[in-house]
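[Automated response] Your request has been received and processed.

Submitted sequence:
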Amino acid sequence: MRRRRNRSEMVAIDQINVTPLLDLTFLLLIVFMITMPLMEYGTSINPPEMNADKLPEENFKSITLTRNGTILFDKETVSRQQLFALLAQLKATSPKTTVLLRADGERSYQEVIELLASIRNSGFGEVTLVTQAEGK
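Generated structure:
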């Protein structure tokens, strides 16, 4: 004997339960409504581009902060006080000189900023920070 299926079993198969889909949709909507304002007020930074202008070939002075913390002014080791005096003298004699600041990557950010502040306090408003090109 063959057993026939009941019609009620067939009816249940051809209907789709959309309740879980609606739950998922509302959950995603709530998540996006919460995260979008947070993304709007996130920190905005503008990284420097790699196609910067070439360094000047003349009328510049180089200041270097080495890995061990010594300061070089045109390849001569100086203290911070000597550097300030040399920069003040340079500003008096040739105020349009470009100052290039190089710092080793191992030095802390605070040390570089302090050195930059001392250069600016000596009268040089614009200082060029020299970095190594990407991939080198």
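Summary generated for your ticket: The first helix runs from residue 7 to 13. The CA atoms of residues 3 and 29 lie 48 Å apart.
If you did not submit this request, please reply to this message.
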